[in-house]
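Standup notes, structure subgroup. Blocker cleared on the pyridoxal-5'-phosphate input:
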Amino acid sequence: MVATARGMAATVKVLGRGELGRFTGTGASEVDRFEADLRRTMGVEHALAVNSGTSALIAALVGAGIGPGDEVLVPAYTWVSTAAAPLAVGAVPVLVEVDESLTLDPVDLKRKITPNSRAVIPVHMQNLVCDMESIMAVAAEHGLVVIEDACQAVGVRYRGRRVGSIGHAGVFSFNQYKNIRSGEGGAVLTNDRTVFERAAMYHDVGSYEREGFGELGAELIVGVNLRMPELSAAVLRPQLAALDAQLERRRRHRGIMIDELWHSGFADRGLRLVPHHDQASAAGLAVSFDDEAAAVELGARRGVRRLADTGRHLYPNWRSIHARTPVHPRMDPYAWAAREIDHGPGSCPDTLRILGRTCAVDLAPELPTPAFRALARRTATA
Ligand SMILES: Cc1ncc(COP(=O)(O)O)c(C=O)c1O
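Run returned:
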């Protein structure tokens, strides 16, 4: 999927030109073009390509002006980056339960809001979308900035809009496991010019001397270097063009797998679809049971994983977060926080209970549909 003929040709062209950095070449930049493609495809005014999803989260938080003393609400089920990014800007993460949809529970979100809450990062896990309508309503009521973490759902739609384009900002990852990939890579999307300008300045320490970037209106800030290389953009552009076809294949495979599972012995054991906030465009598949034993059994099948067994995405396993060791003793976000924050293993019990009896099913969009059909049959019956 990654090595399309167009992708390989574009890569060779970049190598042939020898202009591998976005701002160091003389011709039109592949990264510039990729950002234009992202703006058009995702329906946003601004897109900033960066070198990872983690970088995109940090740049978006900087863009939104989040910092010391601020609390950022994040789900207890996500990759650790979502909780680590607030710490990188001096803020602290506050864990929120996920509900049966495996995404941020708007009811618990409301419960966890304090006068120090400044932002929320809903995460569209496993190509499953969050309840954005409820989350945006809670955020509006409490004046929270919403940064959608769409790293695991690039291109997926929620009620007609692409995820990542609904909140004040959205972020993508293009790492090896994502819908489109360049090994490492990411992007920030936003319709807010100030968020974009601040994120753009932060992602490039030399932004003040770049052509075009010199016209940024926001007050100059000192940045770092989160720039995307030209080769990454060359690899990503053809994949982005083919993304809707891939999502369509995911949806087709989803239907096939549901059909097979519902004709299997698991159907009599309380098998149910994880509720989805936009059934019509669902591009991921997760199923749950009343009891853990059935989930353990299905989770052992090929192409299926019980979510509690994946480990790394569960908050009790975020060891670097629990360590609370600041990068420097005088740069301690927890010392700047207005109150004690509890991330302990007991802080989000509902999330652990739900993940224990839930399985995610790989929809293998890289497989031709007949091959996937055969795989689905084996998964359901083996
Ligand atoms: C939900 C989520 N957020 C953030 C990230 C961070 O992305 P990256 O690995 O590109 O830094 C990931 C990557 O696994 C992710 O799955």
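Discussed briefly. Residues 52-54, 78-79, 81-82, 123, 149, 151-152, 173, 175, 186 surround pyridoxal-5'-phosphate (CB under 6 Å).
Next: hand off to the docking folks.
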